[in-house]
Amino acid sequence: MEQTKWWKHSVVYQIYPRSFQDSNGDGIGDIPGIISRLDYLRELGIDVIWLSPVYKSPQDDNGYDISDYYDIHEEFGTLADMEMLIAEAGKRDIKIVMDMVVNHSSDEHPWFLEAKKDRSSKYRDYYIWREGEPGQLPNETKASFGGSAWEWDEEAGAYYFHLFSKRQPDLNWENPQMRQDIYRMMNWWLEKGLGGFRLDVIDNIGKVPDEMIRENGPRLHDYIREMSREAFQNYDVVTVGETWGANTEHAKLYSNPDGSELSMIFQFEHICASHSEEYGKWKQEKKDFVKLKKIFSGWQRALHGCGWNSLFWDNHDLPRAVSAFGDDGKYRVESAKALATFLHGMQGTPYIYEGEELGMTNIHLEELSQVRDIEARNMYAELKEKGWSHDEIMEAINSTGRDNARTPMQWDNSEHAGFTTGTPWIGVNPNYRQINAKLELGNKNSVFHYYKKLIALRKSPEWGEVLAEGDYTPYMEEDEDIFLYLRSLGEKRLLVLGNFHGTERTISLPYEIKEVILSNYPEAHKWDGWIVLRPYEAMMAEI
Ligand code: NOJ
Q1: Which one of 136, 143, 237, 333 is separated from 342 by 20 to 30 angstroms, measured CA to CA?
Q2: Is 242 an annotated catalytic residue?
Q3: 152-176: per-residue pLDDT in tens?
Q4: How far is Cα 266 from Cα 244, in angstroms, rounded to an integer?
């Protein structure tokens, strides 16, 4: 029988280092800052930290542009700090997962500098070049951060390919030497005792630029199996691939329980469900709750027994969960807890993004000068050209832009929310006096304490196995307010139930509740098989 993997029982916490905790007053979060907050994370009960990139980088895309995979960016600390973080986290039974960005490097990586300079260098073919004339693009492929994916380089006398910013040239995965260099580097990090890797946009590595194939290219899974064999399978680690283009069939390959590829993927079907055809996330349709539930249920059913899900509402690229899916006004606390209940009841590994456990919200920006994110800044120019007004663009940025997730962690009500003694690199959300970790820790009904209970439940002898391995059966799938599903394993049955909206609903339950295990309201109102669900009321109950 397949041995149960430790990460099936883990809860992951994502840290965006720039915004978590500054230790030296330069306004930028750093590794010593993270170390100083490890006890907070231990208190929360998480097992794994996914650390967004801390490698040496010109920070064109906040570290997702790496210029030296073997070193740490000076604003974040040193290699010794990183080793210390791994050790200090380890003392608290927390593993560190590093973000590995290998679809592209920075344009300041020595490989790229060599490749540009010298056509005969072995590094030329580490990137993707096309001959041509300035102004005559090889094809129409667009970069995710706006503009063409082809950039003319004067020194190289050729176009190079970049799916993200022009300072993030794509690596050529068809080059076997390049692949070996990457695996060597991955092993070097794994030797330091890492818990694993989160693999940035990994479904892009099999791209075929001439055919305009970005994701799911023909050799993608060959590369991933090779990477797994050459690096991950040498260690007992967790690996999670970021895959915007994955469906459940792809996911079964990626997360095959035989361990030939990765542990799991981050897929975004529930996030993209409301995106529009023409403008993607920048113009969204009203969220369709029935559709959303069906997406979750589809993934739960499809991967049960033959793959593994990541469970998340938000991350550093997405708006805050409570603002995007809940109510960040009147029912902020209730809806933050409800969202957590629905997600943490499912099968998979839950991910918490820094501040989510406090119910942190989106921020409201008025001016472009307040926007830090390269994607939003580039998009501002593009949408302006398409005739959008300043207010329309700012509204889109405020509801869906990445800076929402990147405002500093709100620790307490002191200046700059306790994030820094200097000037923060990005504005603190002014609601930090009402929403901060110190207040949350001191209030036993807080969002923080609710998350703590959810995490503890996943590890409890009573419910841990049911949550990790149990069947998933949804009910009331066409209902526009109610999220209801059953998790069951042998005799044990856990009902996850709640109201996704801000109005009261009375429903008849398919089962009788034996005991409420966890709830976001003090006491459930039920009688004779009927239950009143107050705004965003949610619970887990034994039946
Ligand atoms: C996905 C990362 O999550 C995002 O933050 C980054 O900008 C792109 N990949 C490019 O690396």
Answers
A1: 237
A2: yes
A3: 999 999 999 999 999 999 999 999 9
A4: 8
CB 368, CB 383: distance < 8 Å:
no
Who contacts 476 (Cβ-Cβ below 8 Å, separation ≥6)?
482, 484, 507
**pLDDT for position 525:** 81
Q: Kindly list the protein residues whose Cβ atom lies closer than 6 A to any atom of ligand 1.
A: 61, 64, 101, 164, 200-201, 242, 316-317
- Which tokens in the block code for residue 456? 């503890």
DSSP 370: G
Tell which atom from ligand 1 comes closest to the C-alpha of 317: 5
The rounded percent of the chain whose pLDDT value lies above 70 is 99
Which residues in the chain show pLDDT less than 70?
A: 1-3
DSSP 242-277: E-TT--HHHHHHHT-TT-SS-SEEE--HHHHTTEET
User: Residue 171: in which H helix or E strand, if any?
Assistant: none
Query: Pairing between strand 55-56 and 68-72?
Result: antiparallel
Whether the Cβ atoms of residue 343 and residue 349 lie closer than 8 Å to each other: no
Helix (H) or strand (E) holding 373: none
Q: What is the pLDDT of residues 373-402, one digit of tens each?
A: 999 999 999 999 999 999 999 999 999 999
3-state secondary structure 523-541: CCEEECCEEEECCCCEEEE
Q: Residue of the nearest CA to atom 8 in ligand 1?
A: 64
Q: What's the pTM value of the predicted model, to 2 decimals?
A: 0.98
284-343 tens-digit pLDDT: 999 999 999 999 999 999 999 999 999 999 999 999 999 999 999 999 999 999 999 999
Cα distances (angstroms) measured from residue 465 to each of 5, 210, 470: 12, 48, 7
Q: How far is 376 from 243, CA to CA, in rounded Å?
A: 21
